[in-house]
Specification:
Length: 381
């Protein structure tokens, strides 16, 4: 069915994404069958047809265990994924008192559309990037880097926040987290089988050339299925990311009514979003991923040029072309709420940390009590 308008495109994309997610689950069972086929080929000496029948029976027997294992993996990620991401990136939650301007920009966007306020997190990093995480309303968070806060103006930061809010509104974050988890399961077991075969040594029992030929064919089929499952899991995972970036850009413009700010934000972020030490799974969730794959097949994001061209064509924005960032002495300060004066020059000196040192992260630990509807309550005087 053709899609007309932003919300129709969102619904169409959600249906396609669910189909892709089902495809990922299918790849888990395909990998189980491939592993069973390799196991039968290594452990017995029969014609290839007999080996494939026995492998199918083994896979059907193991399917409930594979389903339970995948579900357990998803449950662990549901509970601890934010803590694990914070441990990798160094992100920490910030309050209205710590970042009033940034907090107010996000809160105003939420109020304008009746959206529940996600938590706000910040990474002390000079790169320019942002991403959203969470599996439900109690977990949703938007994380930005200090470099993005300092280098973008208020309108551009608001557009970035609108982009990440759109990912949350459209259910992109939840689906992408699940997709990354399932793809991780496939990659883990594909690599495990590969290491068992090629580093553990190949041994099979056979009494004749006919047995050896059957075993060889079964091994080749099993290895081909493992390779196909691994490659398709990566392609599906990346396709989920690419399709959603266009809709998130459009959703940001719908929220802010400012396509030029979204375009200039993308131009400033372009090529400057690398988070040192971040895993590929974290980079896939960012507003831009400068890590590129072979012939764009494994790229998690469409090129900035293509995203800007879409905003120019469909949102009426103007492309200024690639933008240079302000020099060190011209670095933009943290966005301030209306009427508030900027800090004195000596308090905004280059190199000053945005936040004090953070305490160690413990998995599952909450950094503060649950906030009220508009953030944490101010302490009584």
């Amino acid at each position: 069915m053709a899609a007309y308008g932003l919300y129709t495109h969102i619904r169409t994309n959600q249906r396609r994404s669910i189909a892709l997610l089902i495809g990922l689950f299918f790849l888990v069972y395909l990998l189980v069958y491939a592993g069973a086929l390799v196991g039968e080929a290594v452990g017995s000496a029969e014609p290839v047809n007999a080996l494939m029948r026995r492998a199918l029976a083994d896979a059907l027997y193991a399917s409930p265990f594979a389903t339970a294992g995948t579900a357990l993996w998803i449950l662990i990620a549901y509970k601890f994924h934010q803590s694990m991401i914070d441990a990798v990136t160094g992100g920490r939650e910030v309050t209205r008192q710590q970042a009033p301007g940034l907090y107010n920009l996000l809160e105003n966007l939420c109020i304008s559309r009746g959206i529940s306020m996600p938590r706000l997190r910040l990474i002390e990093n000079e790169s320019l990037n942002a991403f959203a995480t969470g599996m439900n309303e109690r977990q949703y968070s938007i994380t930005v880097t200090s470099g993005l806060v300092h280098k973008l103006d208020n309108a551009e930061i608001e557009s970035v926040l609108g982009h990440e809010l759109t990912h949350i509104r459209n259910g992109d974050v939840r689906l992408l987290v699940i997709a990354v988890i399932i793809a991780g399961v496939i990659s883990f077991f594909a690599e495990l089988l590969y290491r068992l075969l090629f580093q553990g040594g190949l041994r099979w029992r056979g009494r004749g050339d006919g047995d050896r030929r059957g075993v060889g064919v079964a091994l080749l089929v099993g290895l081909a299925l493992i390779l196909v499952a691994w490659v398709l899991s990566i392609v599906i995972r990346f396709a989920l990311s690419r399709k959603r970036e266009y809709l998130a850009d459009a959703g940001s413009v719908e929220l802010t009514k400012n396509p030029d700010a979204m375009i200039s934000a993308l131009r400033k972020i372009e090529g400057r979003g690398e988070l040192a030490g971040a895993t590929s799974a974290v980079m896939e969730m960012c507003i831009d991923n400068p890590r590129q794959g072979f012939s764009n097949i494994f790229d998690t994001h469409p090129p900035i040029e293509a995203r800007v061209a879409a905003l120019v064509q469909f949102a009426g924005g103007h492309d200024p072309g690639p933008l240079a960032l302000p020099a060190a002495e011209e670095t933009m300060p943290e966005p301030l709420p209306a009427g508030e004066q900027p800090p004195a020059p000596e308090t905004a000196a280059e190199g000053k940390r945005f936040l004090p040192e953070r305490p160690p992260i413990e998995l599952g630990a909450s950094e503060r009590d649950e906030p009220g509807p508009w953030g944490p309550h101010a302490p009584r005087q």
